[in-house]
Specification:
The protein has 288 residues and is α+β, with helices and mostly antiparallel strands. It has 9 helices and 6 strands; from the N terminus they run αααααββααααββββ. A 4-stranded antiparallel β-sheet has the order 3-6-4-5, with helices on one face. The two termini are 29 Å apart.
Length: 288
């Protein structure tokens, strides 16, 4: 699959423009983050979302954008935990106010994913901005794609937890990012892990398998608390599943498959329903 088919125009990236009213200096943004009113979680969530939204639509050098995203990592984690109590463990359907909080929590994660996708797309397409050419090396690109997929995975998780449909094109974006990492040989490169001591082998492929397996666990049929438990379990066990290209649909041993060229979640593998496809488009999932 050509690079132009796998990346350009498929990552859901908004247009960026110069905006003198948006602070883009990492040091100043760090100062702003330190002034967030964390005792007021709702106000903090609104401020963080608004700032991320604006930054993702403002021209910033790739290096500065990555620094900014790293700075936002800690308050994003704080908000993820603080906002849970407003929509987890409550009777469904959620009242309107709680539903809005849940959707805001999901959109904050989505904006973090957008930030990383902007940097990834710039590198993959060779985009040169007026702020200078991209200096992102392959090691940094690997980490960038990993975090873009990680935050997209949290968007999936939040959708399951509040029993709403996942956003359109999210699986297509996840698939395209994985395809590029796989085709260029860094899907299995280890990612530095400073967040979760229980994840022993963080990589793009293991993260991808974790998302596939969570989807296959029928999360909409699980209780909210169980969804997160299953997801945490799969972080540890996804390395024991394997992705294989479908070469002969009648000779496969995997139970599930995913078409990497579309926007569908993985599902049961049915040979009779499997049209001839390119190997790089369709994979089966096996467990060991």
């Amino acid at each position: 699959m050509a690079q132009s088919e796998t990346i350009i125009g498929l990552l859901g990236i908004p247009e960026q423009q110069k905006n003198k009213n948006v602070e883009i200096r990492p040091k100043e943004i760090n100062k702003w983050i330190n002034t967030l009113p964390r005792a007021n979680v709702g106000e903090t969530a609104k401020l963080v979302y608004k700032n991320l939204y604006q930054l993702n639509r403002t021209k910033i050098s790739d290096s500065d954008r990555l620094k900014i995203l790293t700075l936002f990592g800690e308050p994003i984690n704080f908000l993820a935990e603080a906002l849970k109590k407003h929509f987890l463990g409550l009777p469904f359907p959620l009242i309107a106010k709680k539903q809005q909080i849940a959707l805001l929590a999901r959109e904050i994660q989505a904006e973090m994913a957008v930030g990383y996708k902007i940097v990834a797309e710039g590198k993959l397409t060779g985009r040169r901005s007026s702020l200078g050419s991209s200096r992102i090396n392959n090691k940094t690109l690997t980490t960038t794609i990993y975090y873009a997929m990680r935050y997209l995975g949290i968007v999936l998780l939040r959708s399951y937890q509040i029993y709403v449909p996942v956003p359109d094109n999210i699986w297509k974006q996840i698939n395209r990012l994985y395809i590029h990492a796989y085709q260029n040989g860094f899907a299995n490169v280890a990612i530095a892990n400073n967040e979760n001591k229980y994840i022993t082998q963080p990589s793009i492929e293991n993260l991808f398998k974790q998302m596939l397996l969570l989807s296959l666990a029928s999360p909409y049929r699980l209780r909210q608390g169980d969804i997160e438990k299953v997801d945490s379990f799969l972080q540890q066990w996804s390395p024991y599943a394997a992705l294989c290209s479908i070469e002969d649909s009648e000779q496969q041993v995997g139970m599930f498959s995913i078409n990497l060229s579309n926007d569908d979640a993985p599902g049961f593998f049915i040979p009779s329903d499997n049209p001839t496809r390119s190997e790089e488009h369709t994979s089966e999932l096996q467990s060991h």
